[in-house]
Design brief:
heterodimer; A: mainly alpha; two-stranded antiparallel sheet; 7 helices; 2 strands; disordered C terminus; B: mainly alpha; 3 helices; about 60% helix
């Protein structure tokens, strides 16, 4: 089971460039996360990383002879914010590459860019736009998260195509690789959207106050969950 | 309609337990088919540009635990190890940056 870019797909300069971008992106994410995470969201960010790790192992069939798995950046961004979300998935990718030999060591930067940074940033941006146009309800948060997660997979596939165009070692043309990547990942995107919607709706049902992307929504709930915030351990 | 909310500790413990259960019980049954990227790499003829992973010979490479012969048990155990390591590493990292940033804020902020 190898699910990420292995060593050798991209040339040295492209891999090294991606590593620099990844290091910078994760650094900025961690700094930002440290500023905005309150104490109760710290263990939550660890939980999100552990959960994304588990669900990334669950390859689901998408077509004959092809599977897909959750990327999780959009899900993580909706749950703990884009900064902590991106950093969480970067931790997952590091564990996979170092402990399970999944995802090349030289390709770690590429994988962090595509699977942690692009999905968290593109996914959260799409989520914000969708949340703004949809009615202010919990069900809108779920729908926005699902659709945004699906879009984030396509964005991630396009990021791969960009890297392939810059430094892919294969001989296939960029156009055919682009078509194939977007085609198969459009199917995987459906699974990503469904899993993301399911998880977000489960967390909203249990602890809506912990969903980063639903902040501000609670204030409008008549039961006033925020009112007894103080008595919740 | 007020519902009693789960405590934060209970929520995190429950979440980690769910992740462990998924990794141990479900991941051994996940699809073995090549994933989207592998499939495209095979079809577009660049799968063979892959070079070996430097850590291919480590005890938990490829989501198998060396010495455990049963494939599904081996994958399940690797999953549990991964969930535990990711939780500790992720939680620890966020705790560390949080502490670091707070210390910086108190040392540079106005005395109160």
């Amino acid at each position: 089971m190898t699910v990420h870019i292995p060593d050798g797909f991209m040339d040295g300069p492209t891999s090294a460039g991606a590593a620099v971008v990844a290091a910078g992106g994760v650094g900025v994410s961690l700094r930002r996360a440290a500023e905005v995470l309150d104490d109760r969201r710290v263990p939550l960010a660890g939980l999100v990383a552990a959960f994304v790790f588990a669900v990334q192992m669950l390859n689901f069939p998408v077509a004959v002879g092809t599977s897909g798995h959750l990327l999780g950046g959009a899900l993580a961004a909706v749950l703990v914010g884009p900064a902590a979300g991106a950093a969480s998935v970067a931790v997952v990718l590091a564990v996979q590459a170092l402990l399970f030999a999944d995802g090349g060591l030289s390709a770690l930067g590429l994988n962090v860019v595509n699977i942690a940074l692009v999905t968290a940033v593109a996914g959260y941006a799409a989520f914000i736009v969708l949340r703004r146009v949809l009615p202010r309800r919990q069900s809108s948060i779920v729908a926005a998260a699902g659709v945004a997660a699906a879009l984030s997979v396509v964005a991630s596939a396009l990021a791969f195509v960009g890297e392939y165009a810059l430094g892919g070692t294969g001989t296939a043309s960029v156009g055919t690789v682009a078509g194939a990547m977007v085609g198969v990942h459009a199917l995987i995107a459906i699974g990503e959207g469904l899993i993301t919607a399911l998880v977000v709706s489960a967390v909203l049902a249990t602890r809506p106050d912990l969903v980063w992307g639903a902040r501000g929504l609670e204030l409008e709930r008549p039961s006033g969950a925020a009112a007894h915030e103080g008595v919740v351990p | 309609m007020r519902r009693r909310r789960a405590g934060l500790t209970a929520f995190v413990v429950g979440g980690v337990a769910l992740a462990v259960a998924l990794a141990f019980l479900v991941s051994p049954w996940a699809s073995d088919e090549p994933d989207g990227l592998e499939k495209v790499a095979a079809e577009e003829g660049f799968a063979d540009t892959e070079t070996g992973h430097a850590l291919d010979d480590t005890p938990t490479a490829d989501y198998e635990v060396r010495g455990v012969d049963d494939d599904r048990l081996s994958t399940g155990l690797a999953g549990v190890i991964g969930v535990a390591v990711t939780f500790v590493l992720g939680g620890g990292l966020f705790l560390a940056v949080r502490r670091l940033s707070r210390r910086r804020a108190t040392s540079s902020g106005p005395a109160s």
